[in-house]
Design brief:
With 158 residues, the chain is of the alpha/beta class. It is built from seven helices and five strands; from the N terminus they run E-H-H-E-E-H-E-H-E-H-H-H.
Length: 158
């Protein structure tokens, strides 16, 4: 399970990609979802505040649960609570450049990853070309009925 400090990651992306401009929280979530699908992982991303009034744009994002800390809290506190509550902290990866969160993760033997490093790994993973799956017929040949169909198509009778 990966727990991501949403605004911290967005801020890091802006610093890294100064010439490209900022991306929105929704765009970030969809990009992370593509990454999670590629690596076969699940994640939660926590943003400060209450988020947009209409949260429907965050619906149906695969492998990623999008949470907002709300008015009475902040993302760091929510993430710290999740780290403390985890029954398997060694399986957690916490993504934040915030020293407080990285220290909390390490105290429970979870993995702590700086936002910049996570973003770089994510981008590298998404750039990789997926191997093209060869058709089974290439390895095993055509079935007898397929062979007959092709021979008939080309006017070659057996």
């Amino acid at each position: 399970m990966i727990i991501i400090d949403g605004h911290n990651l967005l801020h890091s992306i802006v610093k890294i990609n100064e010439d490209h401009g900022a991306i929105s929280d929704v765009q970030l979530c969809w990009i992370i979802s593509r990454y999670l699908k590629a690596v076969g992982e699940k994640s939660e991303i926590i943003f400060d505040g209450t988020g947009p009034r209409d949260k429907s744009r965050f619906d149906n994002i695969e492998n990623l649960e999008v949470l907002f800390a709300g008015l009475g809290s902040d993302a760091d506190t929510v993430i710290e609570d999740k780290i403390r509550a985890s029954t398997a902290p060694k399986r957690l990866t916490v993504v934040s450049s915030d020293r407080r969160l990285r220290d909390a993760a390490r105290a429970r033997k979870a993995t702590a990853v700086k936002s910049e490093v996570f973003w770089d790994n994510l981008q590298n993973q998404l750039r990789r070309k997926k191997p093209v799956r060869e058709p089974e017929a290439k390895r095993f040949g055509l079935s007898e009925s397929e062979t007959k169909q092709w021979l008939k198509f080309f006017g070659i009778e057996q």
